[in-house]
Structure formats: structure tokens, C-alpha cells
Amino acid sequence: MEISKAVIKYGKIFRKILVIGNFPDSDVKQKAYEKRLTEMYASQKYAGHNIYPTTNAEHIYAIIAMCLELKEFGLSDKEIIDAVNRGFSRRRNFFKRLIKCIDLLPNSYQIAKNWNISDHDKRVRDGSIFYDQFDVSDGKIEYNISKCMYVEMFETYGIRPLCKIFCMTDTTAYSNLEKHVEFIRYSDLSDGDCCHDIIMDKRKIKR
Fold first, then answer.
1. Which residues of 178-190 are buried (b: 16+ CB within 10 A; e: fewer)?
2. Buried-most residue among 112, 121, 122, 159 (CB within 10 A)?
């Protein structure tokens, strides 16, 4: 997508956040956001981060810009995360409905397993995520991630904890695969030293 189109697209989403949150001077705040995002897209930081095929730097930077603007309003990290998630509610709800449909399938664990293996291979290939562990066994996947470019991008702008917005996508996805998949997250990189997850086939868990 052209930068100008991306700025307009995300500017509208930020406007939605402002309206939902009843923030005053929405026009002024939207223009400030669009100016910030335009400058961020033109930066050397963006050029350095926009090199990983499996990450959408354009989207990530748009959310980072939203977080930076909202932070200037004096919001807490939790308030910022909630506000951004509300702004993307249509996208999130579509994702949830899709996951719930997959959950109806008897092979939903196998689908999750195949997705994780494929994602791991692609991430390792382009260097966007560094795995210290990625073990696949019968009915179980366990991985440990020590470096993630999503977190690195947020860290670059001094707002690492707000990368929780992206870390939460996993917990959201697996919470809607409740029939066949058990998901355990011990920690994530937004506020910890590593991302440590376990995904299990519920049919093979010994009770």
C-alpha cells in the first residue's frame, strides 16, 4: 500500500478510537497522528524494520504511532491497549469468528499444529523471530522465543510493554479454540525475558 493511503487508512481508525474514547479536538488529534505516522514511515528506523516478509511493518508502525499519541494524553498502558483494541474491533471480531469456525472442525488441533510449524519455518528463514526452543511431539508443541522483531520495534520507541497488543493475539486465538486445543502461556516478551508457550491437543491430555 502507498504510504499516503496507509496514513489515511490508519488515520480513520485512530479517529474511531478518539470518538469511542470521547477525546476532545478529534480533528486536531487525528491530524497530529497522521503527521507522526507520515514521519515515522519516512524514517531510517522504518526502513530498517521493513525488511521481514512475515511481519507487516506498515501495520505495526501504525499501531506504535497510535500508542505514542495516546500516551501523550496521559493514559495508562492498559487504557492504551484497550483503546487500540477497540479501534480494531471489526478486524478482531472477524478473526474471532473465523477461529470459532475452525474450532468446530475435529482436526482443529492439527490445523493449529500445521500453522505453528509453517510460521516457525518462515520466521526462522527471515530472522524476524529467534527461537531457543521449538519442540513438536505427539499432541504437543512447546516453544521459547528470546527475540522478536515486533517487540524490538516497540522497544525502539521506548514503549516495549505496549507490544502486548500483538502478544495478545495468540491468547485471543487459542481462547476461541477451546474444544480441541489447550494453550498455556508462561510469559511473553512484552514484559518478560522470553515468550514461552505450550499448545496441546486436548484429546491427548491425561486428566
1. eebbbbebeebbb
2. 112
Q: Please state, in angstroms and as integers, the Cα–Cα distance from residue 152 to each residue in 32, 149, 160, 161, following that order.
A: 24, 5, 8, 11
Average pLDDT of span 33-52: 97
Dist. CA 142–CA 135, nearest whole Å: 5
Q: How far is CA 135 from the centre of its chain?
A: 23
DSSP strand pairing (195-201 vs 181-187)? antiparallel
| Dihedral angle sign, alpha carbons of residues 39, 45, 48, 53 | negative
Q: Percent helix, strand and coil across the chain, each rounded to 5?
A: 60, 15, 25
pLDDT digits 0-9 by tens, 154-195: 999 999 999 999 999 888 889 888 889 999 999 999 999 999
* Nearest C-alpha neighbor of 164 from the set 184, 142, 187: 187
Distances (CA, A) of 49 to 8, 9, 41, 131: 21, 21, 10, 19
Q: Which residues contact 152 (CB under 8 A, 6 or more apart)?
A: 49
